[in-house]
Design goal:
With 675 residues, the chain is α+β, with helices and mostly antiparallel strands. Among the domains are: 93 residues, no CATH class; 228 residues, PPM-type phosphatase domain (Phosphatase 2c, domain 1). It contains 24 helices and 13 strands. The termini are far apart.
Length: 675
C-alpha cells in the first residue's frame, strides 16, 4: 500500500501533538525570542528530546506524521544526535520500505549518510546517497525533497566539493519555495554561506548568512539564527572585526549552552579561541580550543575534531610546543583523509609545512606545502572558483527563465481570468441595464409631470446605472399626489429597496384609499416593515421622503415628510417646513407623521428633493459640501427664471463645484410652479 500522497488522518495519535513537540516547543529553537538568550529553558519533563521523539515516533500511526516528527527533530538538532535514535530509524526504514513510502525511506537514508560521514565511512555515504538518488523522483513532498537536497549540499561542502554543494543547495532552496515550511529555505541560505565562506567569497557569504538570520528570526527559530550568527562571526574574524565577532559568538554561545552536547556550542568555543589567537592571546585561545575539542570528542563529531586539532596545533606552533603540535596534526591528517574532507586536509598540510619550517626540516616542509597548494587549488583555486561562478551564472539564468515562464503563464491565466470577468461583467451589466428599464417603467413619464405643471423640472442623476432615489406621482379624484423619495443605498441594493417602497406608496392609496400625506406615510411604514420582516436577515433599510397632496380645485396643499423637507416659495420668499426626524422602515418605535396644510396660488413654487445634491463634495481641496444653505442660495439667485433654466443652472453649478470629484450619492430635485 502506497502512502506517498495520503493526507494524515485526524485522531488521538495522528495529530502530532506529542511529548516531543511539547518538549521542543519549550526548547529555545522553537520559543519566541526571549529578552536574553541566557535565560534557561523550562522543559515540561526530565525526558530528553531524543527519548520523547522515540516515544512519539513509535506511537504514531500515519507515515506523513512520522515524517513531520523526523523533520522537527532534524530542525532542532540540525545534523547531530542521530546516533541516539539510530535504532528507531532502522525500524522506521523497514516500515517505510514495506509500505512503499519513498519520502520516509529517502529522508532516513540521507540521515544515515550523514552519520556515516561523521564517522568517516565514505563508502557507506556513497551507498546511502545512491539509493536516495534512485528513489528521489518518486517523492512528492517538497519539504522532504528540500531537506534531502540540503543534506547533500552540506555533505558535499564539507568534502570540499563546492560545485556539487552549490548545485544541491540551490535545488534545495527551489524545493523549499514550494514547501509550506519556509524555514528550509533559510537553512539553504546558511549552507550557501558556509561554503561561500570556505571559498573566501566573504561578500556572498555575508549576504547568505544575513538572509538566513532574518528568515530564522522572522520564524522565531533561534537555533537557526544562532548558526547564522556563528557564520557571521567567522566572517568578522577573517576581516579583523574581533569585537563584533566576539559579541556575536557569545550571543550564540548563550543559546547553545541551553542544550547539552550541542555541536553549535563547540563551534562557538572554537570561534572564541580563533578570536584570542588572532589577538595574540595564545594561552586564552588554547583553553577555548581544548574545551571545544573535548566537547567534540564527547559527541564523536569527526569534522569538528579535525577543526579543533588544526586550531590547537597552530597555537602550539606559536607557543613553540612543536612535539605536541605534530601529534595533533598527525591525528587531524588521519581524520581528514578518512572522512575525505579536503578543506581541512589542505590546512593540515599547511600547518605541517609551518611546523617543519620552524623546526629546520625544509624537505618535509616543502613536501607538505606542495600538497597544500595542490589540494587547495582543487578546492578553492581559480579553476574551482570559475566552475562555481559558471554554475552560479547558469542557475541564475535558469531561475530567471523560470520566473519569466511563470510570469508568462500568469499572464495567460490572467487573460483567461479577464475574459471570464469581462463575460461576467457583461452579464451583470446587461442585468443591471434591464433593471434600469424596470425602474424607469415605474417612474411617472415626464410628459405627465408637464401636463399638470407645464413649468417644472426634474433633475434626476443616479450615482450608478440604477438608483435608490425615485420620484412618484398619482391622482386620486381631484387630488394630485407627488413625492421625491430616497431609499437606503444606491445602485442595485438601493433600486431593490425603491421597488418595495414604490409598491408601498401605491398600496397605501389604492388598497387603503388614503390621500392625506401623513396617513400615507404611516401606512407605508407598516407595509415596508412587514416586507422586511419576511427576511431572516437583520435588514436595516428604509426610505426618506417628501410627499405632497395638492387639491387641483381648491389649490390646498397638504404635505408630510420623513427626514426630507419642503421648500415653498410664495411672494418671492422661501420658507422651509422641516420633516419628522424618522425614516420609514425598520425604525424602532415609529411615531405618527405630522401633516401640514398650505393655501397656494398661481406662481408659487414647490421644491422637493433628496439629500444627494446638497451632500456632494467639491471645491479647491475637494473637502467642501454644497450644503442645503448653498443649494438654497443658488435657487434664490435664479428664482425668476423658468424652471428648466433653474434646472440647467443647478446642473452646471454642480459640475463646476465638483471639479472632477466623483459623485457620491444619487441626486433628485423636483421643481414645480403652480399654473
Amino acid at each position: 500500500m502506497k502512502y506517498e500522497n495520503q493526507a494524515p488522518i485526524p485522531g488521538d495519535k495522528s495529530v502530532v501533538v506529542t511529548s516531543l513537540i511539547s518538549e521542543i516547543n519549550h526548547l529555545p529553537g522553537k520559543a519566541s525570542i526571549p529578552p536574553s538568550l541566557s535565560d534557561k529553558p523550562k522543559p515540561l519533563s526530565k525526558e530528553s528530546p531524543a527519548d520523547a521523539f522515540k516515544k512519539a515516533f513509535s506511537s504514531e500511526e500515519y507515515p506523513e506524521n512520522k515524517i513531520q516528527l523526523l523533520l522537527d527533530f532534524i530542525d532542532y538538532y540540525n545534523y547531530s544526535h542521530f546516533e541516539q535514535i539510530s535504532g528507531i530509524m532502522d525500524e522506521a526504514l523497514i516500515s517505510f520500505t514495506e509500505s512503499g513510502f519513498f519520502a520516509g525511506q529517502a529522508l532516513i537514508r540521507v540521515m544515515f549518510a550523514y552519520v556515516s560521514f561523521e564517522k568517516g565511512n565514505s563508502d557507506d555515504v556513497h551507498k546511502e546517497l545512491t539509493i536516495v538518488q534512485a528513489i528521489f523522483d518518486q517523492i512528492s513532498m517538497p519539504e522532504v525533497k528540500a531537506q534531502i537536497l540540503n543534506f547533500q549540499a552540506f555533505l558535499h561542502s564539507h568534502q570540499g566539493d563546492f560545485e556539487k554543494a552549490f548545485e544541491f543547495c540551490y535545488a534545495s532552496m527551489n524545493e523549499s519555495e514550494m514547501a509550506s515550511n519556509k524555514k528550509l529555505k533559510y537553512w539553504g541560505n546558511y549552507t550557501l554561506g558556509v561554503f561561500y565562506y570556505d571559498l573566501k567569497d566573504f561578500a556572498n557569504a555575508e549576504k547568505a548568512f544575513r538572509q538566513g538570520l532574518q528568515g530564522f528570526l522572522k520564524h522565531q527559530n533561534l537555533y537557526g539564527a544562532a548558526r547564522c550568527e556563528t557564520g557571521l562571526s567567522s566572517l568578522y574574524i577573517e576581516t579583523h572585526k574581533y569585537d563584533e565577532a566576539e559579541k556575536l559568538v557569545k550571543h550564540s554561545l548563550a543559546y547553545y549552552s541551553k542544550v547539552e552536547e550541542n555541536p553549535g556550542k563547540a563551534r562557538s568555543l572554537n570561534d572564541l579561541g580563533v578570536i584570542f589567537r588572532k589577538k595574540g592571546q595564545l594561552s586564552e585561545a588554547l583553553a577555548y580550543f581544548e574545551q571545544s575539542l573535548a566537547l567534540r570528542r564527547k559527541i564523536n563529531h569527526s569534522q569538528g575534531i579535525a577543526t579543533s586539532l588544526n586550531e590547537i596545533s597552530e597555537v602550539l606552533i606559536g607557543l613553540k610546543e612543536f612535539s605536541k603540535a605534530e601529534k595533533c596534526l598527525m591525528e587531524s591528517l588521519e581524520i581528514c583523509e578518512k572522512i575525505r574532507n579536503r578543506s581541512k586536509l589542505y590546512r593540515a598540510h599547511f600547518l605541517f609545512s609551518q611546523l617543519y619550517r620552524q623546526t629546520d626540516q625544509p624537505w618535509k616542509a616543502l613536501e607538505h606545502y606542495d600538497l597544500f597548494e595542490q589540494i587547495k587549488s582543487d578546492v578553492v583555486g581559480e579553476t574551482a572558483n570559475n566552475k562555481i561562478q559558471e554554475l552560479q551564472s547558469r542557475m541564475q539564468t535558469e531561475r530567471s527563465e523560470k520566473e519569466k515562464e511563470i510570469e508568462r503563464l500568469k499572464n495567460v491565466e490572467l487573460k483567461k481570468a479577464y475574459a471570464v470577468i469581462e463575460d461576467k461583467n457583461k452579464s451583470i451589466t446587461d442585468s443591471i441595464n434591464y433593471a434600469l428599464k424596470i425602474q424607469t417603467s415605474i417612474l411617472p413619464p415626464i410628459q405627465t409631470v408637464h401636463h399638470y405643471f407645464p413649468d417644472s423640472f426634474i433633475f434626476y442623476k443616479p450615482k450608478d446605472i440604477v438608483s435608490g432615489d425615485f420620484y412618484w406621482m398619482e391622482t386620486v379624484g381631484t387630488k394630485l399626489l407627488f413625492a421625491t423619495c430616497d431609499c437606503t443605498g444606491h445602485g442595485v441594493p438601493g433600486a431593490l429597496v425603491s421597488v418595495i417602497c414604490h409598491n408601498a406608496l401605491n398600496r397605501a392609496i389604492r388598497e387603503f384609499g388614503i390621500t392625506q400625506p401623513a396617513a400615507i406615510l404611516d401606512q407605508v411604514a407598516i407595509i415596508v416593515r412587514e416586507n422586511f420582516r419576511n427576511s431572516d436577515d437583520d435588514i436595516q433599510d428604509g426610505m426618506d421622503i417628501s410627499l405632497c397632496s395638492l387639491d387641483m380645485t381648491t389649490m390646498e396643499l397638504e404635505w408630510s415628510g420623513a427626514k426630507n423637507p419642503l421648500w415653498l416659495i410664495q411672494n418671492e420668499e422661501l420658507s422651509e417646513t422641516r420633516a419628522d426626524n424618522q425614516s420609514i422602515g425598520l425604525t424602532p418605535e415609529m411615531h405618527p407623521f405630522t401633516n401640514h396644510t398650505f393655501r397656494l396660488k398661481t406662481g408659487d413654487c414647490i421644491y422637493l428633493f433628496t439629500d444627494g445634491y446638497a451632500d456632494q463634495f467639491g471645491g479647491e481641496n475637494g473637502q467642501r459640501k454644497i450644503s442645503k444653505k448653498g443649494m438654497k442660495e443658488k435657487l434664490l439667485s435664479v428664482l425668476s427664471e423658468p424652471m428648466l433654466m433653474q434646472c440647467q443652472f443647478l446642473e452646471t453649478f454642480l459640475q463646476e463645484f465638483r471639479m472632477g470629484q466623483d459623485q457620491i450619492d444619487d441626486i433628485l430635485v423636483m421643481g414645480l410652479r403652480i399654473p
